Records
---
Amino acid sequence: MLLVAGVLGVVVMALAIFGHKKVHAELVVPAPPSAIWAVLTDAPRYKEWNPVFVDVAGEHKEGAKLTYQMKDQSGNTSSVTVTVKKVDPERELNQAGGIPGILTFDHHWVLEPVEGGTRVTQYEEYRGVGVWFWDPSWFEVQYQKAIESLRDRLVGPGDAGAPK
């Protein structure tokens, strides 16, 4: 019996350690990093543009806790608390949360100046036992929509012109 429990424990630990999935979305937004950063770090106004994180409480400051109201693919909202790990103004915003060993996430917004504007990348990595039983692919679709909504907030729907 002790042997079975030990083997089961090793299997669960291996699932937790080796469980890994990620999602990725990006778009070139015809706006400078400073304009994009201003929108990304304006927590009270997320509800005006972000289709995934429809409300944010807290401040985008390293070490701070933020509470997001996250809308899932069926339209339901749930509360998610994150810790801001990195704030590199006009370059990167990194936040993480979850339950270590079970399911954690490490979320990044990355801004890179390119010809025609700024490449906005949003990616997230998931780790833990939970990733073996969960499909995060819907996040990739929603994160792409969020970047498109960010673009629309700055330059208008589908507009490749100058920032408004």
---
Amino acid sequence: MLHDSFGRIHDYLRISLTDHCNFRCSYCMPVEEMEWMPQSKLMSAQEIVNLAQVFVGLGVKKIRLTGGEPLARKEFPEILEQLSALPVELTLTTNGVLIHKHLEALKKAGVRSINVSLDTLQPEKFFKLTRRDQFSQVWDNVQLLLQAGFRVKLNAVALHGMIEEEVGDFVQLTEKLPIHVRFIEFMPFSGNHWQSKKVVTAAELLDLVRPRFEVIKLEDQQHDTAKKYQVPGFVGTFAFITTMSEHFCGSCNRLRLTADGKIKNCLFGKEELDLLGALRKGEEVESIIRLSLSRKHAALGGQFGADYTQANPEAIENRSMISIGG
């Protein structure tokens, strides 16, 4: 098993398949022209599988595929098929626009739960946020997933000036649809122009929901990042991921593998260790994984404190969200 120096067991691995994306969301991707990783620096399909096998051998029970946009990786079906043979829960975070092309492969691989990033229910806003006129395709694919029996979570980044007027509409979705909406507090990454005043906290969002709906608090599990709620009688749920206002680092069980094969022990951590380089040299990687874990900070990558209003984005050393993989 994989323990860090604080006794936390890590059994959940997020693997970025690519740093490419077919959307251009500013909070994830810097506004400046992106420089994509050259193909030679990315993990090949077989290298992804090989490293995943090592992690599973060390006790990882869940693997989430991320990007960029994971479905934009041309070898996605091949990678999915090979990973599905491992004894893990396999899942995916996607912007949803290509789901219809991979639905059967996802079913065959045994994927049961999919997170779809969708920050607005308004087509005009969607175009403004993503710089792509694809809202209808994404929403059709959300419906397609629900019809096919997938557990669907909608991830909406709570962007100040945009989410406030839509939070109630997102919650309303859960009346008739077995959908799980999750509002994510805006987090600081390289190039995303984060400021504390742009954060809309879970408490503020809940204050906007309560005048419109009666809500009840649901029980959260040990490693849940989301604090769950439900409107009585509604079939779906909604939740808040309170990374900034109330972090949940004490029960963290996550590790990240970037598309270029670096292990990150924390989303906000600045240190990365090169697993891919070691693998290509024929060296063992278990010791590198354990070294990374031994250096994990107690909270927030050791880069800022629990009071997010005091965080200095200029002092935080990290990649952009898209090159981390979420």
---
Amino acid sequence: MTTVLLVRHGLTDANTGGTLAGWTPGVHLAEKGRQQVSALAERLGAVPVAGVVSSPLERCQETAAALVVSRDLAITTDERLGECHYGDWQGQPLKVLAKDPLWKVVQAHPSAATFPGGEALRDTQARAVAAVREHNERFGAAATWIAVSHGDVIKAVLADALGLHLDEFQRIVVDPASVSVVSYTTLRPFVLRMNDTGGGVSGLIPPKRRRRGKASSEAVVGGGAGAESS
């Protein structure tokens, strides 16, 4: 049984600014994001880890670096764990993208969505799942390892592990600096945790209701083309 800890990078200014960062260079962890991953590293300190594999994007590399501070491990970079290639959508405000007809496809039928000048979400899932399974083989059946990636990518891997069609992956939430845990066996994957942030209950308190008519971009593609913004 190989166990992977799927870690989403910490909070960035793109997340809070409502921008779809994608593969935009120079998107770093915000101060709160650095605090989040530092706390996460402390939480995971007692977990024996065989390796850490990360998306090449800065926000993930910075998250991975925090996780290996007290470990004698090098970070392996795998582009297959990188964010979806959003093409012409990259760098755009979410409130603008929400008006595009493709937005509804991404929400309701993501397996049919291909971003203009970019990648199909089904291809994002295929490469990410292949990466996880190949690293499982590399680390071995008794290993636990960490994969640092992005919201939509982790959601796609979790959907596969749960036996869900990609069209259902929008039902999954993956917050910044969260941990989701999957154990892979010869029988099937077993999802042990999802979106574990380990904090208090503040995230369960409903937000104040917005005035009617005010545009909202919260019902979106979870960790990528959505309010959480890759």
